[in-house]
Amino acid sequence: MSVEDKVRKVIAEKLDVDIDEVVPEASLVEDLGADSLDLVELMMSMEDIFDVDISDEQAEKLRKVKDVIEFLEAL
Amino acid sequence: MEAGNIRTLQKVAVTGIGMVSPLGLNLSESWEGLVQGSSGIGQISRFDTKGQSVTIAGEVKGFSAADYLSRKEARRTPLFMAYALAASRMAVEDAAMPEGWTRDARAGVYAGCGIGGLEVMDENFRILAERGPGRVSPFLIPHFIGNMAGGMVAMHLGLKGPNLTYATACAAGAHAVGEAFRRIRDGYADVMLAGGSEAVISPVCLAGFSAMKALSTRNDAPESACRPFDRDRDGFVVGEGACFLVLENLEKAEARGARIYACIEGYGAGCDAYHITAPEPEGQGMAACMEAALKDAGLAPERIGWVNAHGTGTPLNDVCETRAIRQVFGIHGDRLSISAVKSMTGHLLGAAGAFAAGVSAMALFHGVLPPTRNLENPDPECDLDYIPNLARKQAVAAALTNAFGFGGTNACLCMVSGSGSERGNP
Predict the structure, then answer these.
(1) Residue B172: is its pLDDT beyond 70?
(2) Whether the predicted pLDDT of B131 surpasses 90
(3) Which parts of the sequence belong to the Carrier domain (chain A) (predicted)?
(4) In terms of CA atoms, which chain B residue is nearest residue A44?
(5) What is the dihedral sign for C-alpha B43, B40, B268, B109?
(6) Which of B69, B70, B72 to mutate to test the interface with A (most CBs of A within 10 A)?
(7) Which is the most buried residue in A2, A75, B173, B352, by most CB within 10 A?
């Protein structure tokens, strides 16, 4: 599974939204309904699944689905 | 000067009841179970009880949080919050509240909760130990703190009045109902949602109560494990669930044509100031609390026909409560009917007092008193009429509901049937 597919799947599961809504341009907060606590939990899941550390500063910049994908692909 | 002295005291009616209990997922199932003398106690299914000295509890069976919450919320919301929301929604529906009632900014939520989201703490202690602080959930704190049940109810129903949670252990639900009653009686609100919720059937909680030797160890006979006032009782059984009541200013409830289950007329609260867990042996604190409720209602003890007892099935509680009832009622004690519904549901802890209040309102409304299950050989020191095993059809004009908690904290509610007008008091 590609990074993109994995990221979209995790976001869909954690935010309980349809995977078709998890498009690269979608905003985690505005479009997919995440609140601040959801975001923390989501980043923890990404850290677990991709075995990486995401600092708070980095996490703050990840606003859209594509931000998350690009960030993880670059590692 | 207390507000009660400068305002006209309002009458307070119970107009809606919602329940989630080991006997059922709503009021009618729970009430039917109580009237039948059924047991909601069984082997614990929620976790592996290997190594536990107690393997039984009163679990809520078949509950789906998704019936009341979005899928995302349902998946992560701890049970004590979900039960509270379910019971509250059902209570509001049961009361047939008029459209727009939540626009009254004085309408609030008083909730009882003894412990809180223990399963969340349990899981995150494990995460902390195994994976470190960076993996502890951001939902740990909001899902652990006991006031979040009341918070969630307010959030979902849109209730912007005071939102208070009483953490008075096994008396919490009764304190919540009593304090909400006073708030309406004193004119601070016309409608309140009041109740309690608890869900702590978890390994650490069971082990903790077991370590206190507070629980029945009758693991091979769960349905007869909780035996209030019986000679062979050996402790309480942990239960779970929630009950919320819609309380309304009687005059306004009648004006909108609401069904009145019963009216709350008195409330007593006090403390044994004696021991962290053991009740004061002569039941003086319990008695003082019942007397306070009677005085608050302006009723003589002889007007009471039924006591919905705390009746946990622990060796100490049942004797002390009996002594307290004797002390308050004297010879009239022989004419009282008394029920211990924990014999059927187990002990709903922080929800117990609210559940009992809901049961009392139903009993007064229907003229049916639930039995004390498993009462086969009464303890010689428990010499009152506890309605053994079979419900009793009996119209009662006034009743007391007891709830006592660790820390010596006591609560007692005094309810009258209907709108209270037939009791003949001014």
Answers:
(1) yes
(2) yes
(3) 1-75
(4) B135
(5) positive
(6) B72
(7) B173
- Domain span(s) for CATH 3.40.47.10 in chain B: 12-256, 266-417
- Is B137 within 8 Å of chain A by CB? yes
Position B421 scores a pLDDT of 65
Answer whether residue B318 shows pLDDT above 50: yes
Does an H or E element contain B286, and which? helix B284-297
- Determine how β-strand B306-308 pairs with β-strand B398-405: parallel
Is B285 within 8 Å of B292 (Cβ atoms)?
no
User: Residue A54: is its pLDDT beyond 70?
Assistant: yes
The pTM (predicted TM-score) of the whole model is 0.95
Give the CA radius of gyration of chain B.
20
Residue B141 sits at the chain A interface (C-beta within 8 Å): no
Of B70, B134, B138, the CB nearest to A41: B138
What DSSP element (H or E) covers B111? strand B108-112
pLDDT at A5 over 50: yes
Res A75: pLDDT:
87
| CB contact (8 A) between residue A37 and residue B70 | no
Domain that holds residue A39: 3-73
Q: What angle do CA B244, B64, B28 make, to 5 degrees?
A: 45
Within 8 A of A37 by CB-CB distance, chain B residues are 138-139, 142
Cβ neighbours of A36 in B, within 8 Å: 138
Q: Which of residues 248-267 of B touch A (CB under 8 A)?
A: none
Nearest-by-Cβ selection for B139 from A15, A41, A48: A41
Phi, psi of B242 (to 5 degrees): -155, 155
Other C-beta atoms lying within 10 Å of the C-beta of residue B350: 37
Contact across the interface for A41 and B71, Cβ inside 8 Å: no
**SS3 annotation, A11-73:** HHHHHCCCHHHCCCCCECCCCCCCCHHHHHHHHHHHHHHHCCCCCHHHHHHCCEHHHHHHHHH
**CB-based contact B244:B88 (threshold 8 Å):** yes
**CATH architecture for residues B266-417:** 3-Layer(aba) Sandwich (3.40)
8 A C-beta contact, residue A22 and residue A12 = yes
| Coil vs helix vs strand at B4 | helix
Query: Which amino acids of A are annotated catalytic?
Result: 35
Percent of residues, chain B, with pLDDT higher than 90: 96
Structure token pair of residue B33: 């179970």
* Among candidates B70, B137, B138 on the partner chain, residue whose Cβ is nearest the Cβ of A16: B70
Distance CA B170, CA A42 (A): 37
Q: Which two tokens stand for residue B340?
A: 């211990």
> Domain total for chain A?
1
